[in-house]
Amino acid sequence: MQIWYSFGAYLLTPEGKYSLTQSYNTLLGQYASLRMTDLIWTRFAQPKHRFILWLATQDRLLTKERIKRLTIPVEDGTCCLCEKSIEETHIHLFSTCEWIVKV
Ligand SMILES: [Zn+2]
Known about the structure:
Elements: E1 5-6, E2 9-10, H1 20-29, H2 35-40, H3 47-57, H4 64-69, H5 90-96, H6 98-102
Antiparallel strand pairs: 1-2
InterPro entries: RVT-Znf (IPR026960)
Pfam family, one: zf-RVT
Domain Reverse transcriptase zinc-binding: 18-101
């Protein structure tokens, strides 16, 4: 593959043409791609699952912990799935909740 951009100068393809796609891909290559978005917005997941995962990664999933942060009174802030006295957070729901692990 020919290097088309070097030291601030554009190089042309072997055919002598400028490629916008190569330019775009080279510019994108300078930044690390966020693999999480690739995992969330895959076409293999159902839209509602994509949305819930996206909310969880943005820390905007409406868990009891977030409801408390929004200064809305919550009777019991513990996880209702595993019935342990652990606060219901999105991290707990997606990784450490015993009920979820069993499912
Ligand atoms: Zn739990």
